[in-house]
Design a protein that fits this description.
Elements: E1 2-9, H1 13-24, E2 31-34, H2 50-53, H3 68-71, E3 74-77, E4 82-86, E5 91-94, E6 99-107, E7 111-113, E8 126-127, H4 132-141, E9 147-151, H5 155-166, E10 170-174, H6 187-199, E11 203-205, E12 210-216, E13 219-225, E14 230-232, E15 235-238, E16 242-244, H7 247-251, E17 256-257, E18 259-261, E19 273-275, E20 280-283, E21 291-292, H8 297-311, E22 323-328, E23 331-337, E24 344-348, E25 356-362, E26 365-372, H9 375-386, H10 393-397
Parallel strand pairs: 1-2, 1-6, 2-3, 6-19, 8-15, 9-10, 9-15, 10-11, 18-20
Antiparallel strand pairs: 4-5, 5-6, 7-16, 12-13, 13-14, 17-18, 20-21, 22-23, 23-26, 24-25, 25-26
Helix pairs in contact: 1-8
The protein binds flavin-adenine dinucleotide (FAD).
């Protein structure tokens, strides 16, 4: 039976980074990176951006060149899925019934796209966007696709809509709330993106209530709304969030529910089991200590570093400032901090110029910035977030006042 000093389950962003950081820290024990996808670790964000649009080939989105893993003596165990964990014997069982023992287990499994619970969700032509296989399936159908309905006006849905509209497809975005990006951004940003998409020919329906997906011969033909209207569609993309992939850990007794609970060193409540990335429910200093899951490359990579440090006897708690990006059309959004709980959103610059920022405050203190084609604000605003600073609202709103000038020396 195989045994590894460190067994990493999930060969995505976080898992890959744990293995990389362990070897960078001169960890000499045996390391395996096990994942249920067939490909070596690759970047997920391009699946709705440069890979989907054809600007980047798959080789260009690999996290490391294929030979890297063997060169670093990291065993890549691909197309394998862990179905159960036995914390007492320190072993996991795979889908084929085989077992692997571990000294330390790192759980980095991300999540799977939340499925629609209405009828027709299983029809061919209905897609989630999480893996290379998902993107390839969509790309394979593009030649015969004219009309696309995107369910969910979050970042992934909007990015896919932007690419598809560039391809000349007729795209409709259905958002259940009264604005897009409602879960993650303030109203000025939502309204800006709605206007941009509409200007590019994307139809956006807010407060949309989907009844079911309709089809013929097993293939999607449209989306039926609550009022009975049918929106014709050759393809439906569902971007309504993820379900964290934590069942085996929870079944093994780990605390959690919507994710697995971890402490500041990313330790779960099971002995020698860490969890990181999209599936890790942690207390975040930039959310006032609230327990949240963060779905970002930053969080996966930084938590991976925390785990590698803990394993190599150099522990340091997780305290990284959150950041995120989204590319739609020629707009590059960069976010720093978390806007959760803001009471004021200041618009800095004129959205009509397509270069501006939204600065989120609570009790005058800067929580976060959303910067659209405004990299200078993003770079300089970071210190306002990390320093928990409270500059005057007039200065923040005035693009003539550099944000760095608001940082005390
Ligand atoms: C289309 C898209 C666009 C995105 N855009 C951005 C962006 O612009 N910026 C940003 O910061 N973030 C973005 N994200 C989010 C980012 O990709 C995730 O936050 C990041 O991938 C999380 O890393 P992770 O290691 O937690 O999980 P993942 O990278 O998802 O890796 C988890 C891996 O574990 C595998 N797995 C799950 N269960 C098991 C099991 N039981 N056994 C074996 N393997 C298992 C999964 O199949 C997967 O391969 C985007 C995500 C998507 C899908």
């Amino acid at each position: 039976m195989a045994r590894y000093d460190v067994l990493i389950v999930g060969a995505g962003h976080g898992g890959a980074q744990v293995a990389i950081s362990l070897r960078q820290s001169k960890f000499e024990g045996s390391v395996a990176l096990l994942g249920d996808e067939p490909d070596p670790p690759y970047e997920r964000p391009p699946l709705s951006k440069e890979y989907f649009s054809g600007e980047k080939s798959f080789d260009r989105i690999l996290i490391r060149p294929e030979k890297f893993w063997a060169e670093r003596n990291i065993d890549l165990l691909l197309s394998r899925r862990v179905v159960s964990v036995d914390p007492a014997s320190h072993s996991v069982t795979l889908g084929d019934g085989s077992t692997i023992d571990y000294g330390i287990l790192v759980w980095a499994t991300g999540g799977s796209p939340r499925q629609l619970i209405c009828g027709g969700a299983e029809l061919t032509g209905v897609h989630g966007v999480r893996t290379r296989a998902d993107a390839d399936r969509m790309l394979g159908e593009l030649a015969t696709t004219n009309r696309v309905v995107v369910i969910g006006g979050g970042y992934i849905g909007l990015e896919a809509a932007a690419v598809l509209s560039k391809f000349g497809k007729h795209v409709t975005v259905l958002e259940a709330m009264d604005r897009v990006l409602a879960r993650v951004a303030g109203e000025p940003l939502s309204r800006f993106y709605e206007a941009e998409h509409r200007a590019h020919g994307v139809e956006i329906q807010l407060g949309a209530k989907v009844d079911c997906i309709v089809g013929e011969n097993g293939r999607v033909t449209g989306v039926r709304m609550h009022d009975g209207t049918i929106l014709p569609a050759d393809m439906v993309i569902v971007g309504i969030g993820i379900i964290p992939a934590v069942e085996p850990l929870i079944a093994a007794g780990a605390a959690g529910g919507n994710g697995v609970d971890v402490d500041e060193f990313c330790r779960t409540t099971l002995p020698d089991v860490y969890a990181i990335g999209d599936c890790a429910m942690h207390a975040n200093a930039f959310a006032d200590g609230a327990r949240i899951r963060l779905e970002s490359v930053q969080n996966a990579n930084d938590q991976a570093t925390v785990v590698a440090k803990a394993i190599t006897g150099n522990p340091a708690p997780y305290h990284a400032v959150p950041w995120f990006w989204s590319n739609q059309y020629d707009l590059r959004l960069q976010t720093v901090g978390l806007s959760i709980g803001f009471d004021t959103a200041i618009v800095r610059g004129d959205p009509a110029t397509r270069s501006f920022s939204v600065i989120y405050l609570r009790d005058g203190q800067v929580l976060a910035l959303d910067c659209v084609n405004a990299t200078k604000d993003y770079v300089q605003g970071r210190a306002l977030v990390t320093g928990k600073l409270a500059p005057s609202a007039d200065d923040l709103a005035n693009p003539e006042v550099a944000l760095k000038s608001l940082i005390p020396a």
